[in-house]
Protein 1
Amino acid sequence: MTIELTINGITRQFDGDPDMPLLWYLRDHAALPGTKYGCGMGLCGACSVHIDGKVQRSCVTPMSAMAGRRVTTIEGLAPEGRLHPVQQAWLELDVAQCGYCQAGQIMAAVDLLKTTPEPDDAAIAAIGNLCRCGTYPRIRQAIRRAAELARKEDA
Ligand code: FES
Ligand code: FES
């Protein structure tokens, strides 16, 4: 059975094993390696992408669930090279250390700001994405800064 889905605005067809995790498809078939493999069990958030505009863990999302769905990965967050406010804030505050978790952190932060434009520490902590380097204080600052930048863009 052919599964048709859209990734970063491009329609793609998949005819392989429907049990294949979306993460595998993104990295090995669609050549989008920005999304990372961490735990493979839905726990760490390194593999976070947006599916129909909502953050999801792609390591535990099978291709069989992807028919007709719209995926955005970190590669699709800045169409035409215009950075998302979360990306701008990440750069300003130099959030990344090793960088491995950061694509997932950014995708999760973008999703949070959609529903919670002025998140407090508890809302940010509820994201639950893990960072082995411990960049949590800078992530918190950057999310607040991104919220500020987004408000300015909307003004
Ligand atoms: S790799 Fe998907 S949650 Fe850890
Ligand atoms: S920056 Fe290294 S794991 Fe988060």
Protein 2
Amino acid sequence: MREVAVAMDVNAQRRQAMVEPRLTLADFIRERCGLTGTHLGCEHGVCGACTVLVDGAAVRSCLMLAVQADGREVTTVEALAGPDGELSVVQQAFRDAHGLQCGFCTPGFVVSLTSYLRDHPHPTDDDLRGALSGNLCRCTGYQGILEAARLAADAGRDL
Ligand code: FES
Ligand code: FES
């Protein structure tokens, strides 16, 4: 298959590559950029494990092609912590509220919630449930995740 050139900023680092047009953004991030914090569960848009930010908006990277991200800014879970590894508000909240068990779903939840809270800084509990309804977790029963979301929303700090 004919390859095409793509160039995008991933976590503020320029990435250029020749890719098959059918390569997903998720595979580009994981295989070409080596950023394996973005997880692949269902690979058809259901579980949310592959969520990343594209120009600041939460996107399921298994449903987006790398060529569609050409010229965009992509942010993955690896870029949410501070430069010294300090956890972001949302990451810290997941830790404090025991919002994870195996952790497979966690990057998707963290990225989705970060995006949501940046746009909706004063959510109700129902808002938070709705915001996270597109992310699936097989382990936690969701209570710890919702507590983490509440903690992060109430933290009142930059996300
Ligand atoms: S892997 Fe993308 S939504 Fe499940
Ligand atoms: S913590 Fe295991 S799938 Fe969510």
